[in-house]
Amino acid sequence: MQSIQANSYPIHFNEKAYEALNIHLKENKYSKIFIIVDSNTNEFCIPKFLPFLETELTIEIIEFDAGEVNKNIETCVQIWNVLTELGADRKSLIINLGGGVVTDLGGFVASTFKRGIDFIHIPTTLLSMVDASVGGKNGVDLGNLKNQIGVINVPKMVLIDTEYLETVPQNEMRSGLAEMLKHGLIYDKDYWEQFLDLKSIDFADFDSLIYRSVEIKNEIVIQDPTEKNIRKSLNFGHTLGHAIESYFLENENKTTLLHGEAIAVGMILESFISLHKKLINKEEFSEIKSGIKSIYNDIIFEEKDIEPILELLIHDKKNEFGNIQFALIDGIGKIKINQSVENELILKAFLDYKS
Ligand SMILES: NC(=O)c1ccc[n+]([C@@H]2O[C@H](COP(=O)([O-])OP(=O)(O)OC[C@H]3O[C@@H](n4cnc5c(N)ncnc54)[C@H](O)[C@@H]3O)[C@@H](O)[C@H]2O)c1
Ligand SMILES: [Zn+2]
Predict the structure, then answer these.
(1) Nearby residues of 72 by Cβ (< 8 Å), 6 or more positions away
(2) 256 by DSSP, 3-state: which?
(3) 325 or 119: which carries more pLDDT confidence?
(4) pLDDT of residue 312
(5) Where are the domains of the chain?
(6) What is the architecture of the domain spanning 170-354?
(7) What is the DSSP annotation of 26-68?
């Protein structure tokens, strides 16, 4: 598969990825290599990765416990301390081998250590391949507020090897799929339609679906790296999705939702809003709703859940001047950004979701 050029770094795929990495190591005089992993990628991905690495340099592996709850500044402090103890300097290279938690956190650690050292992302979940590792956003959560602290800074390269997906649990695969569906809905109608009949998808050809998703994300980010306009389209499904995700996370009576599971609900709700703003028609809405519902289990909302979810919306960092701004689809494959939506319509969307 052909490499994709991002703003100022390449994205290499499968066998080409390791070739490119080894050339990069030869061409740059690094002092040491630090590989940041979580407990799962240390177990499942390190054994696959290390044999490809051709280098005489010392390699140190830094592991933290898996899970979004550890994507915080305390974990960063621990890693900055370990880097310091192990003698990391400005010429050290950090390789982030893991899902979005590792790439987000590892990218932030590298971007801030000694005012920034080189880093490379090797995403190992579907979500991190098609979304988190592309676009230069790094950061950590602040309490329940997702990605509240962070920087935009790009890696030297992103290496996507789909073989890592072999050990990714099914529910995590479904979570990543939500971002692929989103890429179709906001940017490429034909791509969206390929997911409508999941049974007919040739999974041997799943690599090309991943490739197209990376291409879409990259094309959007290249046009608007700092999220002034078109990059906001990537927030489709996320305005409500994030609030739902946070609410389920902090509510003891609810099972925690994976990111993509919350986004899937968010995309149905925000499509309903698009319908009511006459941006899509009934047929398009029912195609989206039934398409998404055929992949994800229904999430149960009670009447009393909705008010606190609306309150959480206010904390969404994408709010500007206190207004909640939505990116809504304007016909499948196109998007309209900066749309304000009255609370009443959001409530209607929740009621429709339940029906
Ligand atoms: N920076 C961005 O632009 C951006 C975009 C989207 C999402 N994100 C962030 O990404 C994170 C979610 O990413 P995620 O879904 O990859 O979560 P994750 O990193 O927590 O990975 C999910 C689970 O899979 C495990 N895992 C990872 N690779 C594995 C493998 N190959 N085999 C077996 N298990 C494996 C992990 O240990 C974890 O338990 C969130 O924190 C989100 O905010 C960032
Ligand atoms: Zn997302």
Answers:
(1) 140, 141, 142
(2) coil
(3) 119
(4) 86
(5) 4-167, 170-354
(6) Up-down Bundle (1.20)
(7) HHS--S-EEEEEEHHHHHHTHHHHGGG----S-EEEEEE--SG
Q: Residue 317: its pLDDT value, please?
A: 54
75, 140 in Cβ contact below 8 A?
yes
Expressed in angstroms and rounded, the spacing between residue 115 Cα and the centre of ligand 2 is: 28
pLDDT score for 316:
63
Closest ligand relative to 180 C-alpha: 2
Mean pLDDT value of segment 208-221: 97
Tell me how far the alpha carbon of residue 123 lies from the centroid of ligand 1, in angstroms.
8
Reported pTM: 0.95
CA distances from 267 to 169, 193, 240, 292, 313 (A): 23, 16, 8, 8, 15
- Stretch 95-119: mean pLDDT, rounded? 98
Ligand 2 centroid – CA 94 distance (Å): 24
Ligand nearest to the CA of 146: 1
CATH number for 4-167: choose from 3.30.460.10, 1.10.10.10, 3.40.980.10, 3.40.50.1970.
Answer: 3.40.50.1970
> What are 115's two structure tokens?
């005012």
- What is the residue type of 101? V
Q: Contact 100/131 with Cβ under 8 angstroms?
A: yes
**pLDDT mean across residues, the chain:** 94
